[in-house]
Amino acid sequence: MKLKINIQNRLLTFSVCMVSSLFLLQGTLQAQDSTGVTEVTAPAKTKPVKNTFQSVWIIDNQTVMVPVKGTLELDIMHRFGTVNHGFDDVWGFFAPSNIRLALNYAPINKLFVGMGLTKDHKLWDGNAKYSIISQTKGKYPVSVTYYGNMAYDLRKDPDNSIFKYQSQRLLFFNQLIIARKINDKLSVQVAPSVSHQNSVDGYYTKNDSTGKEIFKDMKFDHIAIALSGRYKLTKVTSILVNYDQPITKHATNNPNPNLSFGVEFNTSSHSFQFFMTNYSMLSPQRNNLYNQNSPFGYTDVTGTKVKGGKFLIGFNITRLWNY
Predict the structure, then answer these.
(1) CA 239: distance to chain centroid?
(2) Are the beta carbons of 313 and 91 closer than 8 angstroms?
(3) pLDDT band at 39 (very low <50, low <70, confident <90, very high)
């Protein structure tokens, strides 16, 4: 009888242990995936902000946008004459115009390289654009991109009256673009730049005190800053505003600031911008160094001060292909 009781106690103890083990095993299995590995929930990774701008251009300036790897882009840029002559040249449409054609490609992520040809001064240019950081919530409050450009003046000069040395045909441009997407509609950016010319314009003038001629010329380096913004009206239509302020002061040929504003229409592979601007040269270094179209009024050839600025109509078209 005593033996029977011991066996029952042992069976009861064994049953309790088995039930407890099953509950523990069930809890463990619920915390495992089908491979038997304990599942650990990782925190969601924050992705960079997308579509700060829809195009690499915002009127006369580059944006922080760098297309993805394998993107080929065709740029068609056009500037008509100034509108100040009214119907005489149909507000600049029949005046001498300037055009630029360019091809750009993204061989790797974050890098965009290309070449272009501009009618004014027959400029060939090579450029590179690299995305340094992208705006990311909790990590980077802004996006930062570097843009660099080197242009070569191809005008004929058989008697060396324009260029004494071939190196004088070169102009350089370097810019750091800092942008922030404020919300789904508004994006803004600021872009300081340095332009460099190997050959400067100037003239000789007599010094009244000594009677000697002194050469007054432009500086080789020029600092400027650009402020730009885009506001989306719809998914495919936006308003664009851009302002360029020269900072460096030269002894002669001081450039005027640029004020431009317009609209942008986008598809998945096209961007079309139509606008008014003071810039006409389509080369960032030439625009920053030599712009003589003032947005705030000007003095005509007779010396009369004219209210209102010298604006011209322009457009940019970009076409993207992905390979």
Answers:
(1) 16
(2) yes
(3) low
Degrees to nearest 5, angle at CA 127 with 125 and 316 = 75
Lowest-pLDDT range of 223-227, 279-283, 293-297: 293-297
Q: What is the pTM for the complete model shown? A: 0.82
β-bridge partners, 176: 146
CA angle centred on 167, ends 216 and 158, rounded to 5°: 90
* Beta carbons of 212 and 203 less than 8 angstroms apart: no
* Amino acid identity at 102: A
Token pair listed for 238: 């936006």
Residue 228 contacts by C-beta under 8 Å, 6 or more apart in sequence? 58, 59, 61, 63, 188, 189, 190, 191, 240, 241, 242, 243
SS3 146: strand
For residue 137, give the amino acid letter: K
Q: How many CB atoms lie within 10 A of CB 170?
A: 17
Pick from 188, 199, 249: nearest CA to 224: 249
Residue-wise pLDDT for 161-194, tens only, equals 888 888 999 999 999 999 999 999 999 999 999 9
Q: Distance (Å, rounded) from C-alpha 293 to C-alpha 54?
A: 28
Q: Compute how many other C-beta atoms are within 10 angstroms of the C-beta atom of residue 24.
A: 10
Domains, the chain, with CATH or none: 57-322 (2.40.160.40)
- 173-194 burial: b if 16+ Cβ within 10 Å, else e: bbbebbbbbeeeeebbbebebb
In sequence order, the β-bridge partners of residue 133 are 144
As a whole number of angstroms, the distance between CA 182 and CA 180 comes to: 6
pLDDT exceeds 90 at position 44: no
Contact 92, 275 (CB under 8 A): no
CA distance 196 to 222: 6
